[in-house]
Amino acid sequence: MKVSKKAYYGLRAMLALANEQEPLSGHDLAKRESMPEEYVEKILQELRRGGFIVSHKGTRGGYVLAKAPCDLNLWEILTHLDGKLKIYAPNTPGTLPCFQVSHCQTNLVFRLVEQELEQSLSRVSLQTLAEQAPILQTA
Description:
two-stranded antiparallel ribbon
C-alpha cells in the first residue's frame, strides 16, 4: 500500500487548517507547509468539492474546515483523495471463487488487513492528529 503525494499533501493541508482560527489562503498554506502552490490549490478544490473544507472570498478569505476537526477522520480524507486504500490488488478480476485454494487464503489475509487499516484510520480524527504535534516536536 502506498499513499499518494496528493493524499499526503491533502492531509497536511487539512491538519494546517485544523490548527488555524482564521481562513487560510492556498498561497499561505502552500508556503507554510513548503508544498507546490498550484498542486495545493488543486487539492484544496478537491477537498472543497468533497465537503471537507469551505472557501471564503475576499481580502480576509481563504479555506476553513467544513466540520470540527473531531468530526473528520483520516480514513475519510485519505480515501476521498486516493480512493479505497488497498493492500493488494490482483491483476486478474475477481477474487472468489479462486482457481487454487492458496489464492483464496492469501486474498482473505489481505482483506482482513485492509479492514483493520480502515478501522484504525477511522478511529483517528483530525483533532487527535493535531493534538500530537506538540508531542512530536519535543520528542
